[in-house]
Design goal:
This protein is an all-alpha fold and 304 residues long. It has helices spanning 2-31, 39-57, 60-85, 89-112, 136-141, 145-163, 165-175, 177-182, 187-214, 225-235, 240-263, 269-287; strands at 125-126, 142-143. The longest helix has 30 residues, at 2-31. The radius of gyration is 19 Å and the shape is globular. The model has no long low-confidence stretch (mean pLDDT 89).
Length: 304
Amino acid sequence: MIDILSSILSGGVILATPILFSALGEIYGERAGVLNLGIEGIMSLAAFAALWVTYSTGSYILGLLAAISVGASVAILHGFASVTIGVNQLISGLLILTLAEGVANFSYRGLTGLITPTVRPLSSIEIPGLSQIPILGPFLFEHNVLVYLSFFLALIMGATLYKTTWGLKIRAVGENPEACDAAGIDVNRIRHLCVVLTGVMAAFGGAALTLGYLGIYERGLVAGRGWIAIVVVIFSRWSPYRAILGSLIFGLGYSIASNLIGVGVGIPYYFLLMLPYLLALVVILFMFKRTKGPAALTVPYRRK
């Protein structure tokens, strides 16, 4: 029983990592007033790019850089459409989702052919002393570098958002872009930068799936985690700090489902697969009336 509990907790942290990366980027984007519904597609394309480049070169660093480049490039397209031109952000995001997922699946079919590229997932780094603590040790202190990086970035991005002038400008742009413009703040420049950050963080999330967890890519790999990240943004009330808790909740949901499937409990397989999404629905139903997003979210800005 203890082994199962330890496996669930440890797996929950690993599976929370892609969600947390993506949620952090989306928080910044939405705080600046730009919604990106294409996160799922960016994660898919970045996951494939990270795996393919790592498999081809043997370098995890190059694989991660490839994922970041892909994520930033796709986000630039979204920024150009939704910020520069002023296309409806929902439509632009859905187009980005379709495009990125299509390119990922097409590239997988075209480049891999009959082979199935695989890499060894990043090794865990045990923190001396702390990793030997029963249950909590594997839960918190035996993970790969991307897991530690996600939680570290959550703290850094939280501090930046709430404790720096740059963070204040981002929050102000998402609430009242007209007043920001009058104060000399370049509203659309900040929005462009935050949109690119959204793509970069989603790319980290995709890379965490292939390089940090599975070591393989297949169609449907992301399995709704991009949408779950958007739910975490709402759950966290646009706070990077609370996004840690939200990501862990959903990560544990995925981990519970996979572990129960592994031990063969008498619960229908498809019900267990549905568990994280059922949890997301419950969160949305309970949080919907209690949350209020940035006032200028999804509203294009044009200087008058």
